[in-house]
């Protein structure tokens, strides 16, 4: 969730870093509202008085009702807007029936002020009880005036984070329950107590609330239970047993897919940051990795993935980090574009992802890839390409990426010791500033921006096997899909208007049915 970077060191450093991160005096950087056709972000208000505001998508809180997805999210405003705001990260919403066409509905739940728990609003979830919708969310206030105030309305002093909620009958007009604030119990971190996920647990016939917190310095998912959320009576059930050791397990949720339960969570502090999942036979756990140990279906650029189903198909919703300033040399920062993946149940209880059907169907005009150059030992016949990357690199360059498009084909590797690559912003000297590499020996796919690793996803390759792949490019976002098993979400500002390439080093790569498809 939004505050993850604030728990990296001592409490003193936390306070200083929090003030720096949310400062209202930082000079506003130039801003351009980039156009996207598939991966939406908030847009400028259409009319005076609208709660629509340009900005970016933070943690997504999906809900399916009335034949459409209601995609609540934390709204990250522009630097200029932040300078005059009393708080940050109010909850906004997209609506969509097909995950291709989105309606931006503007603000749903507002943030507070420096005198309220929810000066900054954090991740939560919505549940319907009777005829009432309850939206539980995180209230965050790290100001010294707030933390030092012994508010007589509560038994103890104020805390940096607490669980709050608002109610509605129609999902349009929301009323905050200002007298409610669920704070950490003894033994759990009062500073890191966030991301409530509330659902009715059919297995135990009670409501569960998952909360991300810490116990003895270790990240845990703490479960509260209630017979009826309307009573505001939440009792600790205990922490879940989750395989692995993390500083925090953020934005958790639980869904049942087929005969198994799946737990999803985000983490941003290990050497494999991103959205992870675990599997169990019961919601009570224990929550374990699948047999091969690979517990991710996308990399670091797809964060805080949560799941919703239309009754037949499950989807996971996250966001692609942007950079600030918005170019490939900018600093990777919080918030970006909404990314939707369709979840696929694989063998051995594993989960895979693929492009939603409507997104795939958006591309209808097939063209052959236009060769603009080559290097090393290569040959081509129609849509078939062979790149022999030994002893020297082999490469094909293709025409400029132009707007929203889809590249697709199949890859076969002769061995598992070399690498194959997709290059973007490919130059005359055959170098590319952004490269996605298939790395069989390391059992992963990784992306590099100017030689620095940005994101990666685990994947086990086999020599001689064909792997279908596609790259969905939209504005500065490019999402790679491989075999309906994994994705790799990327932010590539230099992609459009420049050539792209296929490369091979230390192996022979066969590429079949290579096509560029546009809308």
From TrEMBL:
Please list which residues make up the signal peptide. Answer: 1-20
Question: Is Hydrolase set as a keyword in this record?
Answer: yes
Respond yes or no to whether keyword tRNA-binding is given for this record: no
Which InterPro entries does the entry link to? BT1760-like_C (IPR032507), GH32_Enzymes (IPR051214), Glyco_hydro_32 (IPR001362), Glyco_hydro_32_N (IPR013148), Glyco_hydro_beta-prop_sf (IPR023296)
Keyword vocabulary terms for this entry: Glycosidase, Hydrolase, Signal
Question: Which GO biological-process labels does this protein carry?
Answer: carbohydrate metabolic process
Looking at the record, the residues that make up the BT1760-like C-terminal domain are: 352-516
What is the E.C. number? 3.2.1.26
Concerning its family, UniProt says: Belongs to the glycosyl hydrolase 32 family.
Q: What is this protein's record name?
A: beta-fructofuranosidase
């Amino acid at each position: 969730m939004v505050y993850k970077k604030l728990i990296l060191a001592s409490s003193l450093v936390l306070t200083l870093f929090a003030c720096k991160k949310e400062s209202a005096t930082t000079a506003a950087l130039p801003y351009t509202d980039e156009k996207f056709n598939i991966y939406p972000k908030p847009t400028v208000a259409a009319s005076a008085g609208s709660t629509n505001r340009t900005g970016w998508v933070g943690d997504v809180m999906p809900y399916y009702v009335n034949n459409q997805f209601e995609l609540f999210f934390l709204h990250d405003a522009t630097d200029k807007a932040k300078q005059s705001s009393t708080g940050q990260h109010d909850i906004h919403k997209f609506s969509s029936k097909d995950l291709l066409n989105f309606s931006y509905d503007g603000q749903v739940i507002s943030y507070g002020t420096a005198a309220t728990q929810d000066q900054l609003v954090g991740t939560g979830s919505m549940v319907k009880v009777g005829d009432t919708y309850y939206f539980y969310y995180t209230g965050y206030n790290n100001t010294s005036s707030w933390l030092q105030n012994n508010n007589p309305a509560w038994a103890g002093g104020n805390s940096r984070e607490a669980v709050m909620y608002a109610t509605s009958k129609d999902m349009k007009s929301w009323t905050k329950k200002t007298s409610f604030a669920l704070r950490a119990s003894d033994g759990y971190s009062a500073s890191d107590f966030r991301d409530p996920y509330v659902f009715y647990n059919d297995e135990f016939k009670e409501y569960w609330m998952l909360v991300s917190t810490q116990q003895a310095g270790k990240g845990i998912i703490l479960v509260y239970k209630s017979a009826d959320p309307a009573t505001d009576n939440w009792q600790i059930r205990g922490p879940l047993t989750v395989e692995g050791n993390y500083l925090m397990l953020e934005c958790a949720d639980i869904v049942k897919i087929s005969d198994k339960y799946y737990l999803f969570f985000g983490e941003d502090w290990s050497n494999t940051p991103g959205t992870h999942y675990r599997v169990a036979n019961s919601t009570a756990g224990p929550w374990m990795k699948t047999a091969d140990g690979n517990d991710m279906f996308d990399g670091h650029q797809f964060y805080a993935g949560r799941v919703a189903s239309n009754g037949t198909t499950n989807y996971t919703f996250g966001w692609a980090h942007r950079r600030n300033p918005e170019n490939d040399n900018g600093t990777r920062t919080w918030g970006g574009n909404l990314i939707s993946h369709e979840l696929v149940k694989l063998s051995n209880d594993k989960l895979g992802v693929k492009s939603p059907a409507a997104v795939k169907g958006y591309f209808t005009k097939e063209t052959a890839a236009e060769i603009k150059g080559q290097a090393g030992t290569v040959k081509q016949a129609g849509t078939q390409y062979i790149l022999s990357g030994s002893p020297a690199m082999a490469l094909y360059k293709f025409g400029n990426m132009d707007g929203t498009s889809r590249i697709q084909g199949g890859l076969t590797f002769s061995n598992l010791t070399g690498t194959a690559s997709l290059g973007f912003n490919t130059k005359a000297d055959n170098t590319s500033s952004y490269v996605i590499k298939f790395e069989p020996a390391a059992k992963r796919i990784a992306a590099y921006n100017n030689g620095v690793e940005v994101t990666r996803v685990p994947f086990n390759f086999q020599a001689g096997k064909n792997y279908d792949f596609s790259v969905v490019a939209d504005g500065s976002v490019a999402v790679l899909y491989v075999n309906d098993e994994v994705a790799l979400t990327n932010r590539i500002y230099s992609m459009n208007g420049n050539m792209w390439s296929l490369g091979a080093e230390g192996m022979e790569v066969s590429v079949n049915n290579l096509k560029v498809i546009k809308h």
